[in-house]
Every structure is written in structure tokens, then in C-alpha cells.
Amino acid sequence: MQKETSFWKTSNKQHLIYKIFFIFFFYSTFSAAETIKPDVKIDPYQVVIIQLNSLKNNDKPIIDSGIEQTWEFAHPDNKINTGPLEKFKKMIKGDAYKMLLNHLDHEIIQEKVTESKALFEVRILDKNKSYFKFKWQVERYNEEGPLLGCWLTTAVSTPAPLGSSI
After folding, report:
1. In this predicted model, what pLDDT tens digit does every residue of 37-63 receive, in sequence order?
2. How far apart (Å, rounded) are the C-alpha atoms in residues 17 and 11?
3. The domain made up of 36-164 is a member of CATH 3.10.450.100
4. CB of 72 within 8 A of CB of 37?
5. CA distances from 53 to 65, 120, 143 (A)
6. E strands in the chain
7. In the chain, what are the domain boundaries?
């Protein structure tokens, strides 16, 4: 009888360990999928980094989470022209911007920053090892509401091909 008690204690301990591991794993997965929201503390350069890193890892942790993250930092005026979200996804997956998805590397060059606007040159090395250049414009939102003072993307140029890395 003593062995059975010991067995059940061990089993209960293992059960508890498995439950803790499961909760930790579930929480970690859920946390990794959380979207970064615009915030006045995020500067224009960081906005571009957030968007590019998200597009670079578009399907991690879930399919199109990178596009959805990029959409979060789109200026409301930009969303009017490119949205709703499903239309934006189609646009990013289309020929004009598909090189942004799952690209291998990027470089961000700050061109001009004022109190209300920032312009960057972005160079992408796509998964086919071709380089592309974009102009990426970010503006401070100045209307009342939760986005007041946040930096948001107002324009991304069509890509200019720069050639192959091979």
C-alpha cells in the first residue's frame, strides 16, 4: 500500500509539472502573437523597424501576422486608400510589394526627420537575393483620439530594383 501512495504522489507531481509546462507554453505562444500597438513613445525609426521585422517574419507566429502588424502602424488616411485589412494583405502579396514578405535582410537610412514627418530609404534583400529600394514616409498623427502623437506610416513607394546579390 505504501508504494501505491508513493506512486500517486509521484504521478500527481508529474501531473502538476505537465500542467505548469502546458500553461507556460500556452502563455508564451499567446504572448508571442500579441500585436504591438502604436504609442507616442515609439519613434519614427522604430515604427519602420517594427514593420520591416514583422514583414521579414510574416508567418511567425501565425500566417500573415507580419502584414497585420504592419497594418497597425498604417496612418488612418493610408488605411482609407489601402484597406480594409484583407485588401491590404492582397496588395502586400501582389507583385508590387511581395519582395517585402519573408525578406532576408533590410537596411534603413534616415533621410529627413522633422517634428511631424520622417522619410527613410529602405533597402531590401528579398528571398530570391535581389535588392530593392523604397521610400518609407512616417508622420505624427495630430488628430484627437488614441493615436494622437503616434508615428504612423503614410506612404511607401513602389520598389526600385537594385539588382541581384549574386
Report:
1. 999 999 999 999 999 999 999 999 999
2. 10
3. yes
4. yes
5. 11, 15, 28
6. 105-113, 117-125, 130-140, 151-156, 160-164
7. 1-32, 36-164
